[in-house]
Every structure is written in C-alpha cells, then in structure tokens.
Amino acid sequence: xxxxxxxxxxxxxxxxxxxxxxxxxxxxxxxxxxxxxxxxxxxxxxxxxxxxxxxxxxxxxxxxxxxxxxxxxxxxxxxxxxxxxxxxxxxxxxxxxxxxxxxxxxxxxxxxxxxxxxxxxxxxxxxxxxxxxxxxxxxxxxxxxxxxxxxxxxxxxxxxxxxxxxxxxxxxxxxxxxxxxxxxxxxxxxxxxxxxxxxxxxxxxxxxxxxxxxxxxxxxxxxxxxxxxxxxxxxxxxxxxxxxxxxxxxx
Length: 251
Known about the structure:
Blueprint: E1 2-6, H1 9-31, E2 34-38, H2 45-52, E3 62-66, E4 68-70, H3 81-93, E5 97-99, H4 108-119, E6 126-129, E7 152-156, H5 159-167, E8 180-184, H6 186-190, E9 194-199, H7 205-213, E10 231-236
C-alpha cells in the first residue's frame, strides 16, 4: 500500500484526482475503455469535484459501477447515493454508462444478482473508495465478510455506521437512517486492478489507525486493503494524526 499524506484536504483531493485521471486515461489508451467503481459520502466531495474537472479524459469511454446504496430509499431522497452520483458524476461528465444500484427495488436480493451479472462482464480498472468511521469498506461493517464471492450483498448497518450518516447531515434523525443496504462485497472490491482510497478529516483518524496499524481483521474491514498490491491511500493531516511511524508512506 502506498500512503500519501497532505497538510490539507484540498491538496489531498487534488493529488488523488490527478492520479485517478491518470489511471482512467491509461486504461482508455490501453483497451479503449475504463471501468470504474465510485464511492459516495461527504469525504468524497472535493475528490470528485477535482476529478470531474480534470482535462483530457474521454468520459464517453468510461463505465461506472455504484459501490453501495440504502435498501428502500428512492433515488429522489436527499441521502440517496444514486442521487449523489447522478449529481456529482453523471450529470457533470456523462459517462458512457453508469450501473446504479436500485436500493428501492422490490427484491434487494434479486438486485444484487442483477448487478453481479453485469459486473462479471466488466473487469474493474480502478475503485474509488473511502474508510468509514467504524472502519467499514463500502457498507461492509465490522465484522465484515472477507470470504463471500458474491459481488453484491444485502448487509445490515451497525449503529456506528448509521450515526455517521446522521452526523454528516444526510438524515434528520437516527431512526430515519435505513438499517439495511446493498453493498459491493470485500472480495469484489479487491478484484479491482487499482484502488484509490480517499480518507480526510479528524473523525476518520481512529479508523485509519486501526486499519493500518493493527492486524488485518474483519473487525477493521478496510484493513484488508493492505493485502491489495495496487492500493494508494490518500490522507490529510487530520486523518493521519494517529498513525504510528511504522505506517509510512509518501509525503
């Protein structure tokens, strides 16, 4: 894992976006298209803003996949991740295709199978992910399933995860936060050729410490990224504040 630390969130986001743009352009030049997994959440705001402004990307040759979505939430809801991605990526750069998760599908399990079938035909060039305050990767809360080969899962959200969504302002009350979500699985994320993990803010510092300084464990789901050969982790000064000297990386 390559660890990149920056003094500010904006510098971190711009550097991550530069690398992401390079990966997309390299994939398009190599094979004529780029397949991408996109994360959501407040931590991704600056990164996605910088990426969608990056010059030289033929967005018509990109195919995006959705990382996770709440079960039962319509795309019109302010907290819907479909809405997030449509506003911050789809409407801005118009990718060639965007495979969204229908969180309000009548049968969430059937939706998982549908998405998994589509994804099986599109090897992923790069996954954009983050780390949750509870250490989750996508909506794989601890203890995460490190073994399943299913591409998408219906998962139950723990209280720490739900409180993070409340704290970020997506919902008015904790009881409004859904208790289930459809999430890409850990093993599916790890099948990506490259992974860019963007993690700013002090509220993520403990999770970053636990995932990097402690052993790989389902109790710290994002710790599994240490086993991926081409993962780059982008931190700002606040999110990196609790790291030990052994968790070294690029400045």
